[in-house]
Amino acid sequence: MLEDTNTENIFFEFLKKKQISFIENFELKKNSWLKAGGTFRLYIQPKSLSEIKDLLNFFIKNKLKFYVVGNLSNVIFRDGIIKTPIINLKKYNQINVDQSQNDIIKINVCCGISIFKFVTFISNNLKISGLEGLVGIPGSIGGAIYMNASSYDSYISEFLKEVEVVNKEGHLKRLNIKEIEMEWRSSIFHKMREVIILNAIFEFPNKNILNTEVIKSRIHKNKNHRIKFQEKKSPNLGSLFATKDLYFQ
């Protein structure tokens, strides 16, 4: 937390020197999904792993707390000035595709990218089916993994194989799908509060490559259903109803 002016000034100089993007006095009422909440004194948007590590090193050295947020779509923040530095990974959003493996398309995606952009990329660019139902969820891939997102018979954990995280000391670690402990709207990250979800590795079988029109038809059907049954006149978090049928419980 940036309690004194001297520490705040030192932090500003550090961010400028490292050329890490940040916004002062970020107003949640203008920028969050729910259009509610106070003001982040400092909203930081690193775009690379090296920038994220530099930030963590600074926080450790100066004994500062921080908080990581995704797409500001499923969290309600309090009113007033929030002095804790906020890290947002929206600019950490690369996608790398490896189609060299036998019958498998391996995709490494930075977890700051939005669910919509990721699903649109694999649907339009790679013609991969399987996650069409997630289109319309306004969160990031990191948030989707944290909450084990699912919608319209698609769920983030189906093709997820590994997740790379970094802890507050800057050490990297990879967790496989079993270690992530995906459960209904939950994951191991609810217990691992002091890590940042960085990258996710997905593996799709070649059989999931379909005709583009088939994929577009599924996405269009889901979009129309959302438009018909979800209130959009005011900011909201979508439907209050869900099913556990995907997990056979």
Could you walk me through the main structural features you see in this protein, from its secondary elements to its overall organization?
With 249 residues, the protein is of the alpha/beta class. The protein is built from six helices and twelve strands. The protein has helices at residues 5-18, 28-31, 49-61, 115-125, 141-147, 212-229, and strands at 21-27, 39-45, 67-69, 81-82, 86-88, 95-98, 104-110, 150-151, 154-155, 160-167, 172-176, 195-205. Strand 8 and strand 9 form a beta hairpin. It starts with a helix and ends in a 20-residue tail after the last helix. The mean pLDDT is 88.
Question: What structural keywords apply?
Answer:
5-stranded antiparallel β-sheet; Uridine Diphospho-n-acetylenolpyruvylglucosamine Reductase, domain 3; 249 residues; alpha/beta; 27% helix; Uridine Diphospho-n-acetylenolpyruvylglucosamine Reductase, domain 2; 6 helices; 2 domains; 12 strands; globular; 5-stranded mixed β-sheet
Query: Which class do the helix and strand fractions yield?
Result: alpha/beta
CATH architecture verdict of the largest domain: 2-Layer Sandwich
Q: Given the C-alpha coordinates, what overall shape results?
A: globular
How many DSSP-defined strands? 12
Order of helices and strands: HEHEHEEEEEHHEEEEEH
Largest sheet: 5 strands, mixed
Radius of gyration: 19 Å
From the N-terminal CA to the C-terminal CA, the straight-line distance is 42 Å
* Strand percentage: 15-25%
Query: Roughly what percent helix?
Result: 25-40%
Average pLDDT confidence is: 88
Can you tell me the CATH class of the largest domain?
A: Alpha Beta
CATH level 3 topology of the largest domain? Uridine Diphospho-n-acetylenolpyruvylglucosamine Reductase, domain 3
- Oligomer state equals single chain
The number of helical runs is 6
Low-confidence stretches: none
How many separate structural domains? 2
